[in-house]
Every structure is written in C-alpha cells, then in structure tokens.
Specification:
- There is one protein chain.
- With 274 residues, the protein is of the alpha/beta class.
- The protein is built from eight helices and eleven strands.
- α4 crosses α5 and α7 packs across α8.
- The longest helix has 22 residues.
- The protein binds adenosine-5'-triphosphate.
- Adenosine-5'-triphosphate binds next to β3 and α2.
- Adenosine-5'-triphosphate (ATP) binds next to β3 and α2.
C-alpha cells in the first residue's frame, strides 16, 4: 500500500509549506519488487520543482523501474511516492506528466504532424476540442524545433529528429513534469548537446520539472541536481558541484566511482563484522 506524506507542524505550531509546493517528487521507503527480485530498495529522495534532475547509474540499476513507478505504470510499489502533490498513479496526474520511454512510439508511416494529431486526439478527444488540439500540436512541434519538417514522414527522420518527435508528444498537454528515459541514447555528441539545450529551454521557459535518465556520466554535468543510483539504491542526491567537492573528484564520473568504491568497502566491512 502507498501512503501520502504529510508535513507535521513545526515547533511554533505552523504547518510548513506542503512538500507538494516545493518538490515535484517525494519518496520515502520506496520499494519495488519485480518477479523474484527487489529492484528498488527503500529509496528516500526529493526532486525539486522547476529544475533538471538527472537519474544516473549503470545499466540495470533500476532507473527505468523508478521512472515507471513515478508515472504510475509499475506494479508492486510500496512506501511513499508523491508526485506533484498526489500519490503516484493518481488519475489527475495523467495530463500533468509527460513520459517518454526508451522505445518511443513514433509511427514511421505517418508524418510528424499526423503522429502528434493522433496522440493529441487520445489526450484531448472530441470534436469540440479540435481547434485546441490543432494549436497544441503546432506549439509542440515548434517547441522541439521541427516546424519545417512537420509534413515529413517519421520513417525518414534522423535519430535526433525522432527523439524530438517523442519529446513533442510528451509536451502536448503542457505537462508540469517531464520524465524522459534515456532520451539521448544512440545520438551523436552534437545532437545530444542540442537536445540538452532544449531541455534547459523547457525548464527555464515553462518552469517545468524534468527527470532525465542516462548512463552517460558526462550528461550529469548538464543537470541542476543528480540522483546517482547503483543496484537499486541511491548513492547520492546532490548538485554536481556539491558531489565533486564532497568526493574531491574533478568530474561527476570520478565522484560516482569514488562513491561506488566507498559503498563496496562499507558493505565488505559489514559482512566481515557478521
Ligand atoms: N519483469 C522483470 N522481472 C524481474 N526482473 C526484472 C524485470 N524487469 C526488469 N527486471 C530487473 O530489474 C532491474 C532494473 O531494471 P531497469 O530496467 O529498471 O534498469 P535500468 O537502470 O533502467 O537499466 P537500463 O539502463 O539498461 O535500461 C534489472 O536488474 C532487471 O534485470
């Protein structure tokens, strides 16, 4: 069962601002079991609003599972997981969150505009909404800088353009939270840089919160905050600067490796003490 976090009054009896107002995501003791395995183990973390938080860690550490829990599509989730002030999976969150999975659903035999028209019709159905849908589709295509390709078949696009179509789909409902699962995978350095600039424009321009996973550590440097994961646990929840300072490392990658070594040494010590 998931429960909803409530903030207790402070020493003066005042109720502090609800976590929902200051954070986009708040987790306490978040645990996910998949098949026979506990894939996420009692995670505690907060993702602030209006910033880009990077979710980084090696393949298989549980990034996608965590994202699925946040967007409400993951089974066997226990602990507290609040998203935009509601328990994850709450029906009112559907239009407030944009989610792009690792295997984006872009139809190759439709144009960019037709792809977006299709998803807009699912999100905002009915004849009376057709003008609003048209405007939203035009805006989402412009947001990802694909206006000049709007009538190109998706099958003829480059990898970077396809990623931007998926992002446009996620932007259709003007979501407050964007959850992007490895959006830059397989892209060359120039396209990756362009996409990251776009993420920053979205965060700054709309005050949206972005949670972006990656296993490429140099992308960590582009985030406001980082959640570093390893084997279903969070190793660090901090800014890139604070992480480098705390570990005495020059890069986030080196900081991550030091934290991994520390965690391994600690678990060895615990095993020897048993
Ligand atoms: N249906 C399942 N049953 C059991 N275990 C699963 C299932 N799906 C995934 N897992 C395991 O859960 C762990 C976390 O998977 P997840 O996809 O969340 O990792 P990830 O960090 O997103 O990896 P990647 O970067 O490769 O996508 C992995 O060890 C995986 O083997």
């Amino acid at each position: 069962m998931m429960n909803n976090a409530a903030d207790p009054p402070d020493a003066n009896g005042n109720t502090p601002p609800r976590t929902a107002e200051t954070s986009a995501i708040h987790a306490e003791g978040l645990t996910v079991v998949r098949g026979p395995r506990t894939v996420l183990r009692a995670l505690d973390f907060t993702v602030p609003r209006g910033q880009i938080t990077g979710l980084l860690g090696p393949s298989g550490c549980g990034k996608s599972t965590l994202m699925r829990a946040i967007v409400g599509t993951q089974a066997k989730v226990t602990g507290t997981l609040d998203v935009l002030g509601r328990p994850a999976g709450h029906p009112t969150l559907r239009t407030r969150i944009g989610y792009v999975t690792q295997a984006p659903s872009v139809y190759d035999d439709l144009t960019i505009r037709q792809n977006l028209d299709y998803f807009a019709a699912i999100l905002d159905p009915g004849r009376s909404a057709s003008e609003r849908r048209h405007d939203n589709v035009t805006r989402a295509i412009a947001d990802v800088d694909l206006t000049s390709h709007a009538y190109s078949l998706a099958g003829n696009l480059s990898g970077g353009q396809r990623s931007r179509v998926s992002l446009a789909v996620a932007l259709l409902g003007t979501p407050e939270l964007l959850v992007l699962d490895e959006p830059t995978v397989g892209l060359d350095p120039v396209l990756r840089r362009d996409l990251w600039n776009l993420f920053h424009d979205i965060a700054a321009g709309r005050g949206a919160t972005l949670l972006i996973s990656s296993h490429v550590m140099d992308e960590a440097e582009r985030c406001h905050r980082l959640l570093l994961m390893r084997e279903g646990e969070i190793l660090a929840d901090d800014t890139p600067d604070a992480l480098r300072t705390r570990t005495g490392a020059d890069t986030v990658e080196a900081a991550f490796l030091r934290l991994v070594d520390e965690a391994t040494a600690n678990s060895r010590k615990k095993e020897t003490a048993r």
